[in-house]
Each structure stands twice: as structure tokens, then as C-alpha cells.
Amino acid sequence: MYIPEHYKITDEDLIDEFIRYNGFATIISPNTEYALITHIPMELEYDDQGNRLLRGHLAKANPHGKYLLENPGATAVFLSDFNHYISSSWYNYAEAPTWNYMSVHVSGPVRILDDRETADSVRDLTKRHEKDIGGDLDFDKLPSGVLKQLRYVTGIEMKVEKTEAVFKLSQNQDTINFDRIVQKLKATGSPKSVKMADAMMKLRDLFYNG
Hints:
Elements: H1 12-21, E1 24-29, E2 36-46, E3 52-59, H2 63-70, E4 73-79, E5 84-86, E6 98-112, H3 115-132, H4 144-147, E7 153-159, E8 162-168, H5 175-188, H6 191-202, H7 204-209
Antiparallel strand pairs: 1-2, 1-4, 2-3, 3-7, 4-6, 5-6, 6-7, 6-8
């Protein structure tokens, strides 16, 4: 991924936080004609050696799973759930308009999980997101007929070998223009403009004092 130096993020804790919050990934594998692309939720974990792992599952009928068995290298793309147009009229000088966004690309070899590992992965995913919504669904108490649906999914695990993170949040501007952009985004008042303004302010100290 092309990343201008001033937009590059290398802080692993910040990247991990981003992945956990934006856990719906796009898995991409190169192919002879067109790339294979699948959208799945993934969980970030660490093994006993401290290696970062991404676990998820896809439909067994999806040919991407078989392809990964034979061609294990892949990239997982994580995007923030918001991005926003930035008008150059918000600057105190003449410039072209642009777009702010955040993305993390994670690449590495993929291993196909066995049945037990797949069940554990789905259980962990369910438990985490039930907690997020204040739910009380217990995966292990689902009817056996429901649990048998696990036979129709393929669990995967990616060992993270390469991470690229871009947070393009106007940090190339001076603090005066940065703050002007934040105020204009807040004034726009849409859900995504407010989220963008909040993200920029959350990272302001890192950009200018880090």
C-alpha cells in the first residue's frame, strides 16, 4: 500500500485497537485473472510466542477457502466505518480538496483450522460481540442442530507478518488548519463528519506532540 510518510502509523497498540474496533475484514488473495475477495469478521489474538494472529471463518462453499489451502498467502484489509471529504475552502490558503480516511492492511500466511479450532474461533467471536451489544447468547447452549452448521464453514488463521497502516487525518497541515478542519467537520453535523472530527482530535497530540 502506498503511504506518504506523514500518514504512516507504526504504533502497534494503536493499530491493534483499530483492528479490534473495525474487525470486519476484506480478505484478498492474488489469482491468475482476478483477485479472490471475501468479507468476513476477524478476531485479533496472540499466541504463546507473542505472534499476532487473525482468526475468522468463511462459508465452506466459498472457493476462496480451497484456494487458501493451496495458496496460503493473503492480505486482510480493515477500514474505519467512516471517511470524509475535506474541502480546501476550510484551509487558510489555496489548495486542492482531499479525503480523510483510515486503513490497515495485514498480510501473512493463512492456515486452515481444524473442526475444534473453528468451533473455538466462532465461540470467541460470538462471545466478544455479544458482550459488545450487552447480549446474553451462550454459544455452547445453542441447539445441537444449530451447532451442526459449523460443518458448513471453514475456519482460517493468518499469522501476521506484515502490517501497513495509514491514518490520513490532515496531520500534514499546521495546527491552525487542522483545528479549522475539525471545527468544519463538527459544524457539518453528519454522523460520519462528527466521527471524523472526533478521531482527529483523539490523535491530535500524537500528530503534533508525539
